[in-house]
C-alpha cells in the first residue's frame, strides 16, 4: 500500500509539474497555441485530450502482452484513433458549436506526441490501474495549461472570462460570462497566434522561476542542516 501511494504521488508530481507535457516536454504545442483564444476552448480540448489519454493508456496496458513488438506503434496509433473518433462523435452530437470552434484540432489529437509517448513509455509497461492514473494526471496537467493560457488570452484580449460556456455546458451556462473590463477595441495581439506564443513563454518562465526559487531554498536548508550537524559534532 505504501509503495502504491508513493507511486501515485510520484506520477501526480510528474504529470502536473515536473514532467508536464506542455510546460516541460513541450508536446502538443500546435493545438495548444491554436485553439486557446478562450478559456472554454482550452477546457474543451483539454477534456477531450484527457479522455483520450486515459482510454488509450488503459487499452494499451490491457493488450500489451498480445501486441508484437514490431507493430506496437501502429497498434497504439489505431487505439488512440479509435478513442479520438469516439470523442469527436460525442462532441459533434452534444457540443456542436464547440466542435466547430475546435475544428481540425480534435482529430489531430491522434498525432499528439504526448499521448503516443505515454502509451509507449509508460502504459505499455504497467498494469491498467497505474496506466489509467498516469493518463489522468498527464491529461490533467495538459488541460490546466490549456485553460490557463486560454483564460489569459481571453482576459487580455477581450476583457471577458468563460465566454461561450454554453457551447460546452449548454443553456444553463449562457450567463456565466464574466466581464473583467469593458473594451470596444479587443487587444488583437493576445487573441492572435503571436499572443499564444508570448503567453506560453510567460507561463514557462514563471514555472522555471518557481523551480529555481524552490531549488535555492532546498539547497539553503541542506547547507543549514550540515552546518548545524557540524556545530553539534564539534561541541
From TrEMBL:
<protein>
    <recommendedName>
        <fullName>Ion-translocating oxidoreductase complex subunit E</fullName>
        <ecNumber>7.-.-.-</ecNumber>
    </recommendedName>
</protein>
<dbReference type="GO" id="GO:0012505">
    <property type="term" value="C:endomembrane system"/>
</dbReference>
<keyword id="KW-1003">Cell membrane</keyword>
<keyword id="KW-0997">Cell inner membrane</keyword>
<keyword id="KW-0249">Electron transport</keyword>
<dbReference type="Pfam" id="PF02508">
    <property type="entry name" value="Rnf-Nqr"/>
</dbReference>
<dbReference type="InterPro" id="IPR010968">
    <property type="entry name" value="RnfE"/>
</dbReference>
<keyword id="KW-0472">Membrane</keyword>
<comment type="subunit">
    <text>The complex is composed of six subunits: RnfA, RnfB, RnfC, RnfD, RnfE and RnfG.</text>
</comment>
<feature type="transmembrane region" description="Helical">
    <location>
        <begin position="75"/>
        <end position="94"/>
    </location>
</feature>
<keyword id="KW-1278">Translocase</keyword>
<keyword id="KW-1133">Transmembrane helix</keyword>
<keyword id="KW-0813">Transport</keyword>
<comment type="similarity">
    <text>Belongs to the NqrDE/RnfAE family.</text>
</comment>
<comment type="function">
    <text>Part of a membrane-bound complex that couples electron transfer with translocation of ions across the membrane.</text>
</comment>
<feature type="transmembrane region" description="Helical">
    <location>
        <begin position="131"/>
        <end position="152"/>
    </location>
</feature>
<dbReference type="InterPro" id="IPR003667">
    <property type="entry name" value="NqrDE/RnfAE"/>
</dbReference>
<feature type="transmembrane region" description="Helical">
    <location>
        <begin position="187"/>
        <end position="206"/>
    </location>
</feature>
<keyword id="KW-0812">Transmembrane</keyword>
<dbReference type="GO" id="GO:0022900">
    <property type="term" value="P:electron transport chain"/>
</dbReference>
<feature type="transmembrane region" description="Helical">
    <location>
        <begin position="100"/>
        <end position="119"/>
    </location>
</feature>
<dbReference type="GO" id="GO:0005886">
    <property type="term" value="C:plasma membrane"/>
</dbReference>
Amino acid at each position: 500500500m505504501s509503495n502504491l501511494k508513493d507511486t501515485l504521488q510520484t506520477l501526480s508530481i510528474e504529470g502536473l509539474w515536473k514532467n508536464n507535457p506542455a510546460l516541460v516536454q513541450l508536446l502538443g504545442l500546435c493545438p495548444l497555441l491554436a485553439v486557446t483564444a478562450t478559456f472554454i476552448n482550452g477546457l474543451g480540448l483539454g477534456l477531450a485530450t484527457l479522455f483520450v489519454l486515459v482510454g488509450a493508456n488503459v487499452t494499451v496496458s490491457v493488450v500489451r502482452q498480445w501486441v508484437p513488438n514490431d507493430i506496437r506503434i501502429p497498434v497504439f496509433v489505431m487505439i488512440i484513433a479509435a478513442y479520438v473518433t469516439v470523442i469527436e462523435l460525442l462532441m459533434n452530437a452534444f457540443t456542436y458549436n464547440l466542435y466547430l470552434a475546435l475544428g481540425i484540432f480534435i482529430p489531430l489529437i491522434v498525432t499528439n506526441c504526448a499521448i503516443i509517448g505515454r502509451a509507449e513509455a509508460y502504459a505499455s509497461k504497467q498494469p491498467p490501474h497505474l496506466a489509467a492514473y498516469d493518463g489522468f494526471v498527464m491529461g490533467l496537467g495538459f488541460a490546466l495549461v490549456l485553460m490557463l493560457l486560454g483564460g489569459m488570452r481571453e482576459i487580455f484580449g477581450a476583457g471577458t472570462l468563460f465566454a461561450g460556456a454554453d457551447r460546452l455546458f449548454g443553456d444553463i451556462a449562457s450567463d456565466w460570462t464574466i466581464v473583467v473590463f469593458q473594451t470596444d477595441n479587443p487587444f488583437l495581439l493576445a487573441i492572435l497566434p503571436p499572443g499564444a506564443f508570448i503567453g506560453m513563454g510567460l507561463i514557462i518562465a514563471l514555472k522555471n522561476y518557481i523551480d529555481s526559487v524552490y531549488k535555492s531554498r532546498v539547497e539553503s536548508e541542506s547547507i543549514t542542516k550540515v552546518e548545524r550537524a557540524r556545530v553539534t559534532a564539534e561541541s
